[in-house]
Design a protein that fits this description.
This protein has 389 residues and is of the alpha/beta class. Helix content is 41%, strand content 19%. Helix 1 runs parallel beside helix 2, helix 3 crosses helix 5 and helix 6 runs parallel beside helix 8.
């Protein structure tokens, strides 16, 4: 396989843009994302840094830079007011051609959106909104440090529908301390009743440095036993699929045709540009990550337009194995022939661990030859993928 594919190769030419908007009304107990409590002066300075980075980062790309997907994440982008969002979209359009965008997503929190803001976002071309609901149970929202109540989740989806959004996603969490199967069942009932096009259902991860991880270390909070976490995951899979949202990725469920196109770029290991504090990019087989600390990011972005803290260029074998792990997250599985054409390795010959997992029933070979993690293997998918990479 050639090591110098054409510029239009999706492995080389970024088709997706991620923009990190780090401001929140409050910081959740489980969150380790680069975020800070909203302050107007910090937001203005951040936009200056962001615009300078955008100007410099898009310059080497095929002009004009016209991504197919755009994702505004955070933080909580909806924490910004309409005037600030207007300034943001103005700077974005200066440097990015948005006419080709098919999917334009914004993350939002219940309680930080209203009818005016939602109508404004829709008018700017946002056509997909993802609400961080996490749970409808008051005691779990309190545990997570969420500032919205259970009713806000329902109201946010209703407001989005009234504004005209036809592609709505919500996040749910499972495997939480003190979360019973009954709690989870009620959350799933509530989520399905909203009839959103997409649901992301994540198992809780105790990230270093977070208040929740510290509470566990002090014995204030008890984690669920692993077998209960697996039971939660199985319930989510079964109930959401039965509710008309097929699982298409380890943690994601959607009506057919409403899968998150931007995230599919990540899972297919295609190229994308990320701008903003802590944002990652993958361009021309180089993986880079911006500074995680806000002040470091703004200093470097304002000075030179480049705020990259780390870079790594993957060789053929490394990027092939990484691509295998990412694609195995998808329930469609991996086509060995197509994978070999794209990445230059035979997954059965070059990854003997895969056949061992097939023999154990944790990975399965489908009738058409595709390989995917089996239903039995999904609860331990992280361990499988860690060995493959």
């Amino acid at each position: 396989m050639s090591e110098h594919p054409s510029q239009k190769d999706p492995r080389i030419h970024p088709d997706g843009l991620y923009v990190h908007l780090p401001f929140c009304a409050a910081i959740c107990t489980y969150c380790d994302f680069a975020s800070e409590v909203y302050a107007a002066a910090r937001a203005r300075r951040y936009f200056e840094a962001l615009e300078n980075e955008l100007r410099v980062r898009v310059a080497p790309l095929t002009q004009p830079f016209a991504p197919r997907t755009v994702f505004l994440g955070g933080g909580t982008p909806s924490a910004l007011n309409v005037a600030e969002l207007r300034s943001f979209f103005e700077l974005l359009r200066k440097h990015v051609d948005l006419r080709r965008v098919e999917e334009f997503t914004i993350e939002a929190n219940p309680g930080s959106t209203d009818g005016e803001k939602l109508e404004f976002l829709l008018a700017q071309g946002i056509n997909r909104i993802s609400f961080g609901v996490q749970s409808f149970q008051p005691h779990l929202l309190k545990l997570l440090g969420r500032v919205h109540g259970a009713q806000h989740g329902r109201e946010a989806v209703a407001l989005a529908r009234s504004a005209g959004f036809t592609n709505v996603s919500i996040d749910l969490m499972h495997g939480l301390p003190t979360q019973s199967l009954d709690d989870l069942s009620r959350d799933i009932d509530e989520a399905l009743a909203l009839r959103t096009e997409h649901i992301s259902a994540y198992g809780l991860i105790y990230e270093d440095g977070t208040p929740l991880k510290q509470a566990v270390a002090k014995g204030v909070v008890q984690t669920l036993p692993p077998e209960e976490e697996s039971e939660h995951y199985r319930m989510v899979m079964e109930r959401l699929e039965a509710g008309g949202l097929p699982q298409y990725e380890i943690s994601n469920y959607a009506q057919p045709g409403r899968e998150a196109q931007h995230n599919l770029i990540y899972w297919r290991n295609e190229a994308y540009l990320g701008v903003g504090v802590s944002a990652a990019s993958f361009i021309n087989f180089e993986r880079s990550t911006n500074y995680y600390q806000m002040d470091d990011y703004m200093r470097e972005a304002l000075a030179s337009g480049v705020a990259i803290e780390s870079r790594e260029t993957l060789d053929r074998d490394a990027r092939a194995r990484e691509s295998l792990v990412l694609e195995l997250r998808l329930r469609a599985g991996v086509d060995p022939e197509l994978f070999k054409k794209r990445w230059g390795i035979d997954i059965h010959q070059d990854c003997p661990e895969l056949d061992r997992y097939i023999a154990q029933g944790l990975v399965e070979r489908l009738r058409d030859g595709r390989v995917r993690i089996s239903r039995a293997g999904l609860p331990v998918a992280d361990g499988i993928m860690a060995e493959l990479v």
